[in-house]
Design a protein that fits this description.
Belongs to the class-I pyridine nucleotide-disulfide oxidoreductase family. The protein is about 30% helix and about 25% strand. It is of the alpha/beta class. Strands 1, 2, 3, 4, 5, 6 and 16 form a seven-stranded mixed beta sheet that branches. It has a six-stranded antiparallel beta sheet with strand order 17-18-21-20-19-22, sandwiched between helices. The chain is globular, with a radius of gyration of 25 Å. The structure holds flavin-adenine dinucleotide and nicotinamide-adenine-dinucleotide. Nicotinamide-adenine-dinucleotide binds near residues 186, 267 and 320.
Length: about 500
Amino acid sequence: MQRETDVVVIGAGPVGENVADRARAAGLDVVIVEHELVGGECSYWACVPSKTLLRSAAALRAARRVPGAAEAATGELDVDAVLRRRDFWVSDWSDRGAVDWLDSVGIALERGHGRLDGPRRVVVERSDGETTTLVARHAVVLSTGSDPVIPPIDGLALSRPWASREATSVTAPPRRLAVIGGGAVALEMATVFAGFGTEVTVLARHGLLGGMEPFAGEAVADGLRGLGASVRLGVDVVRVERRPDDEVRLELADGEVLVADEVLVATGRRPRTDGLGLETVGLEPGEWLDVDDSLLVRASTNEEAPWLYAVGDVNRRALLTHQGKYQARAAGDLIGARATGRPLELAPWGAHTATADHSAVPEIVFAEPECGAVGRTAESARRSGRTVRVADVDFGSVSGAGIHADGFAGRARLVVDAELGTVIGATFVGPDVSELVHAATIAIVGEVPVDRLWHAVPAFPTMSEVWLRLLEALGRPGAAEGAAAGDQAASPSTGTTDDDDEEPAA
Ligand SMILES: Cc1cc2nc3c(=O)[nH]c(=O)nc-3n(C[C@H](O)[C@H](O)[C@H](O)COP(=O)(O)OP(=O)(O)OC[C@H]3O[C@@H](n4cnc5c(N)ncnc54)[C@H](O)[C@@H]3O)c2cc1C
Ligand SMILES: NC(=O)c1ccc[n+]([C@@H]2O[C@H](COP(=O)([O-])OP(=O)(O)OC[C@H]3O[C@@H](n4cnc5c(N)ncnc54)[C@H](O)[C@@H]3O)[C@@H](O)[C@H]2O)c1
């Protein structure tokens, strides 16, 4: 069977759903192809289950940090209730609600495996073997996501390791869990299982959270140890074996042997581009899809008349749901504009470009403690040749943080481009700091001069007052030097570093 439509989207994860919706809103006929669950990895096996698994123990820890509430929070975490709440949030792994939404907005769903069959053609193979060929008048969008990488460690693939799906869909937490990796998945899952009472061992080759400021990973190592986990840095797993008694034996490079009941592999992702027919349009199967800022795949097939787009994880620009959905809005609106002859806005920060992917990607790792960052780290900014000023502030100097929780431990950093006078990076580490990140994202995207930020007054006594402390640490042109904070002097660990300085100056 052959069917013509305006736009075909392969992959109905959060990103595919969004691009389909924007193209549909422009008046185009859209068919979306999905071979598993509408809603994708994020809804059933990634963001949603991981955050619901984390939330209950985080709420309990939060209560225990506040006298009065702490006395009331004397029981143990109810793990079964946590798992039931997770099941509710993943709709018991049913996509009926998501399919109803597609119906309600008029996006046609083709269930089956989609693959390209030359320019503008997509073959959909259903589970019964029947095929439909879709011919797209305007565009095909690839939003097929990513799969976990299982590294070539001797014996690992044969030892029935967990990847992220097995961890987020757990029904009975193991007694002992070894976690290989030091990124977001490893640390969030280590936090979940340590909260459940599992004996967790994190095995990381380097430090933790390599893409963030170093103090973020250091805080999570301390936080996990505080939950009873063992965090081993600078270790290499060289051999893994699942024994007949079902135990997993992990051998490290120095010969040490660890034993666990399950091993979670969290060592990054690879693109879902095998079996996608890429070779029929001159592209390499199994590779990430390289796109320009308008999400068009850089390929000869797009040179004459653009038609092939890639959004979300599969283009490797930022493996995050919110950033993929941002790309989807730009690409969906662009497809609509191209199809209906409306003006294209392709200049940086235009409606049809994903400019923020380069400089303003927010990421929150919901570990113990939370780590939120956006933009550049100090080191990455310097590596890119910028002259930077760095302000560091301990949350101990923020009344709102102290009121939020006794002994609030956390730290914030602003990275300022010394020539432009604008914020280019921010990091917040501590309990419940995730909501602070969006203000930094706005400052970076808006290129707000730091001098103007003095007029953006954070309410007292909120954690947002950390912004005021950060500005004080940077100093205000036109103010007397050494002006102290109104309600509480900056702590000794508050300070700035210019590129000439070695250490933050108190
Ligand atoms: C454990 C974990 C936790 C995470 N937590 C967060 C978080 O808190 N916040 C955040 O922003 N990001 C988080 N992420 C990342 C986030 O899950 C991804 O960035 C997001 O799912 C990418 O969306 P996507 O639509 O590009 O891909 P996916 O969600 O993977 O969706 C792709 C869809 O395409 C379908 N598909 C693939 N190939 C075909 C084909 N040939 N034919 C038909 N259908 C096909 C798949 O079945 C799937 O439904 C997390 C990731 C993991 C692993
Ligand atoms: N809260 C969130 O937003 C969130 C949560 C989870 C995942 N994610 C996204 O999902 C993606 C995947 O996460 P991830 O943690 O799997 O990947 P990652 O790339 O963030 O981290 C991979 C980790 O594995 C280590 N590693 C790589 N190869 C290894 C090997 N052979 N042996 C031992 N260690 C090895 C790396 O050093 C790194 O620490 C990330 O890009 C992240 O953006 C986001």
